[in-house]
Amino acid sequence: MGAIRIANIHDFDKIIALDHIAQADQSRVAFIQDAIAKGNCFIGQVDSKIIGYGVLEYSFYSYGFIAMLYIHPANRRQGYGEILMVHMEKACRTCKLFTSTNKSNKPMQALLEKLGFTLSGQIENLDPGDPELVYFKSPSLQSR
Ligand SMILES: CC(C)(COP(=O)(O)OP(=O)(O)OC[C@H]1O[C@@H](n2cnc3c(N)ncnc32)[C@H](O)[C@@H]1OP(=O)(O)O)[C@@H](O)C(=O)NCCC(=O)NCCS
Asked: How far is the CA of 88 from the centre of ligand 1 (A)?
């Protein structure tokens, strides 16, 4: 990854352009806008091009919570998701860091397990038939 930095409003259109869900879902657009406004959105760049983004907020019982990690499909399986995730772990200001993903999202689960996140529990009734798995890590215990 060339560089990771906090996104600003000038990055907004480029983030929307890379996230295919944002192109069809207004609530995702609002989420990205809010994350940028609060300084919670990190972007990953390769050759000055934004190839992915992540959102680290403190909305989960006041603890760090990675609410989003998204890598453009053309750039997946090249280690960028892992690099962005580790960057957000290091940026986390609380002693506990949480994130969550759908039970159907095997790539994200594999990434979280590789990085040493452990399961904290499961939330039903968000997406029908696809529970949300909550993962935990203590950034202060990371070996890196
Ligand atoms: C999940 C996601 C962020 C992974 O990003 P990525 O850049 O492709 O992941 P990386 O290349 O850094 O992979 C790191 C590790 O994650 C795991 N992994 C990632 N994608 C995987 C896949 N498709 N199948 C199995 N394991 C996978 C592997 O353990 C991998 O390590 P390895 O390369 O040594 O095997 C990406 O698939 C994505 O953007 N998906 C859509 C958005 C999403 O679902 N986000 C998560 C919920 S918010």
From this structure: 15
Q: What is the CATH number of domain 3-141?
A: 3.40.630.30
pLDDT value for 2: 82
User: 111 CB less than 6 Å from ligand 1?
Assistant: yes
DSSP secondary structure letters along 66-126: EEEEEE-GGGTTSSHHHHHHHHHHHH--SS-EEEEEETT-HHHHHHHHHTT-EEEEEE-SS
Task: Quick: pLDDT tens for 58-96.
Answer: 999 999 999 999 999 999 999 999 999 999 999 999 999
- Residue 144: per-residue pLDDT: 43
Q: Is 114 in the pocket of ligand 1 (CB under 6 A)?
A: yes
Q: Where are the domains of the chain?
A: 3-141
